[in-house]
Specification:
The chain is of the alpha+beta class. The chain is built from 3 helices and 6 strands. It has a single domain (6-82), classed as Ferrous iron transport protein A (FeoA) (SH3 type barrels, Roll), CATH 2.30.30. 22% of the residues lie in helices and 37% in strands. It has a 6-stranded antiparallel beta sheet with strand order 4-3-2-1-5-6. Strand 5 and strand 6 form a beta hairpin. The longest helix is centred in the first third of the chain and has 9 residues, at 18-26. It is globular.
């Protein structure tokens, strides 16, 4: 997911994990828009905007979030698109 691109959160990989519950609590809800705002110099961590909040996630944690980007019909992970 390139910087500045908005995507729709589709689901979580391994949705029953404690991390996915934490992502939900932070505001990463399926159906909401998420935008990659910034990448650290080594591309980790990543800064996302969700519901008017900026949230920092490690790349490996962001990889648990599945998104739809633009007109694509397949589901991609935030990590794959952020690379």
């Amino acid at each position: 997911m390139p910087k500045g691109v908005t995507a729709i959160i589709a689901a979580y990989r391994d949705s029953h994990s404690v991390l996915c519950r934490r992502l939900f609590d932070l505001g990463f809800h399926p159906g909401l828009e998420v935008e990659l705002v910034r990448k650290a110099p080594m591309r980790d961590p990543l800064v996302f905007r969700v519901a008017d909040c900026e949230i920092v996630l490690r790349k490996r944690d962001a990889a648990r979030i599945l998104v739809h980007v633009g007109d694509e019909h397949d589901t991609n992970t935030v990590e794959k698109k952020a690379a």
